[in-house]
Amino acid sequence: MKILVDAMYDGVDAKLKEFGYDAYSVKKLIAEGKKLSSDYSMIKYAEENHMIMVTEDTEVGKACKENDIPCVLLDQETIFKIILEELTKYKD
Questions:
Q1: What residue segments make up the domains of the chain, in order of their start?
Q2: CATH topology for 2-90?
Q3: pTM, whole model, 2 decimals?
Q4: CA 87 to CA 30: how far, in whole Å?
């Protein structure tokens, strides 16, 4: 399973690798010379390389969904659910 991590989550790729995932960062790929500056290029790269996209960008998430590209969308609702889960640890 290959994973493409959006630039805003640069560093998550390294952590995913620690857990055995084949993860790549858009930011690092750009530094290597890949042309992934636009959302379209990034999504197309994920599709061509059979990758799962990880992003917070809702437009990228919608584009992935419309084009049947696997995507983990870390939107505000998802982040809020994580916050609630963590807060329940501190409830009386």
A1: 2-90
A2: Rossmann fold (3.40.50)
A3: 0.85
A4: 37
